[in-house]
Model the fold of this input.
Amino acid sequence: MKYEFQSHFSKRIKDMIEFRGALGRSIVGYQWNMANFDRFCVYHYPDETFLTRELVLAWCSDADGSGASRAMYARGFGKYLVSSGEDAFVLPPSFFPHKKPDLPYILSNEELRHFFDASDRFPGHFNSPLLEYTVPVIFRLIYACGLRPQEARLLKREDFNYTNNTIYIAEAKHCKDRRLAVNSFTFSLRRKVDITHPVGLPQNSTNAGI
Done:
């Protein structure tokens, strides 16, 4: 998706995003959040040309429950401007601290059995081909390999190695790749997708690649 920037910070925002991309770092979150920041500046600080403390705190405080997330992007933008030789306010980490995460809920063996039984009976849908096959595989990969939901969702056919039962995770957290071993039962479920639909899945579906 292409984002348009219209505030006095537009060029500097574009330069920062291009700089992050050139370093091989993810820019998706920055594009969306800096577009939000840009619109905020246009409506509330149309004449501002410097990243001031007032502007940063106003934008972060304007968020409904996502001030800590905005603070991270505002801090990154401020650091980029300072590194470029500009005078800019860099938001200290002590502002808008992240909410302390809740303790995880550990499922019992009985709850896990019910969960995977339900995933194995997940019905197909005409808008999402092979959904009844991909759902059991995705949840088992997440559970057995400790994958993040997005890592499992973005797996492609070529990421599965049937010779040694491993999967390749590309550009995970901190842009690092890794290879993981998978149990044979999960691989047998995954192979059903290829047998049932050997041509491939549409890459714009929610189960793209699996």
